[in-house]
Amino acid sequence: RQRWRADGRALRKLPVHVGLVVTEEEPSYADMASLVVWCMAVGISYVSVYDHNGIFKRNNSRLMDEILKQQQELLGLDCSKYTVEFANQDKTGPVLNCQSTLKVLSPEDGKADIVKAAQNFCQLVAQQQRTHSDLDVNMLDNLLSSTNGFPDPDLVLKFGPVDSTLGFLPWHIRLTEIISLPSHLNISYEDFFSALHHYAACEQRWGK
């Protein structure tokens, strides 16, 4: 545990929000749980898990069980400091003094959420609670329910051979650094930390 904390502090910059995007057809609950727990251990505050088939979200209790198991095995008593929250669902576990929060997302939390936000805004205009000129970036951010309370991802780790994020939060990743890894299956901590090190060394020009 001390090594992981030291690794996080040693990086020149640590992402606040990491997206873990699986493009492979057979997701591994154990390997994804390892990635989530490593994110927590190095000090990343927000983690999003996504697969384009929505398997993790449909089976979130199975993923949660695996995360809790690995929290206890890898973090010991420190597991009491962490919490898991599933998008559009009630929080599970204690939320006070938590260091990391997880959301499990599916395609319905991407483009479909944008459509729903647009419909909600149009309804507000029709009810004369808003005018069309009120719509801006901040307003749309507030209307998006799937990422409410989450900052935009600083880093996306994409796993698998597909050269696409397959609908992962299209509104939120315009400035996100995306690093591709061959697979999340049997991934090692060294591979994970190497990706964080690569991110820390990147110079982000913000479109300039």
From TrEMBL:
Reaction(s) this enzyme catalyzes, per UniProt: n isopentenyl diphosphate + (2E,6E)-farnesyl diphosphate = a di-trans,poly-cis-polyprenyl diphosphate + n diphosphate
GO cellular component term of the entry, any: dehydrodolichyl diphosphate synthase complex
Listed EC numbers: 2.5.1.87
One Pfam family linked to the record: Prenyltransf
InterPro entries according to UniProt: Nus1/NgBR (IPR038887), UPP_synth-like (IPR001441), UPP_synth-like_sf (IPR036424)
Main location (coarse class): endoplasmic reticulum
Cofactor(s) essential for the protein: Mg(2+)
Subcellular location per the Swiss-Prot or TrEMBL entry: Endoplasmic reticulum membrane
Membrane topology qualifier: Multi-pass membrane protein
GO biological process: angiogenesis; cell differentiation; lipid metabolic process; regulation of intracellular cholesterol transport
Pathway(s): Lipid metabolism; Protein modification; protein glycosylation
Keywords from the UniProt entry: Angiogenesis, Developmental protein, Differentiation, Endoplasmic reticulum, Glycoprotein, Lipid metabolism, Magnesium, Membrane, Receptor, Transferase, Transmembrane, Transmembrane helix
GO molecular function: ditrans,polycis-polyprenyl diphosphate synthase [(2E,6E)-farnesyl diphosphate specific] activity
TM spans (from-to): none
Family affiliation: Belongs to the UPP synthase family.
Biological function: With DHDDS, forms the dehydrodolichyl diphosphate synthase (DDS) complex, an essential component of the dolichol monophosphate (Dol-P) biosynthetic machinery. Both subunits contribute to enzymatic activity, i.e. condensation of multiple copies of isopentenyl pyrophosphate (IPP) to farnesyl pyrophosphate (FPP) to produce dehydrodolichyl diphosphate (Dedol-PP), a precursor of dolichol phosphate which is utilized as a sugar carrier in protein glycosylation in the endoplasmic reticulum (ER). Synthesizes long-chain polyprenols, mostly of C95 and C100 chain length.
Description of how the protein assembles with itself and partners: The active dehydrodolichyl diphosphate synthase complex is a heterotetramer composed of a dimer of heterodimer of DHDDS and NUS1. Interacts with NPC2.
Name of this protein: Dehydrodolichyl diphosphate synthase complex subunit NUS1
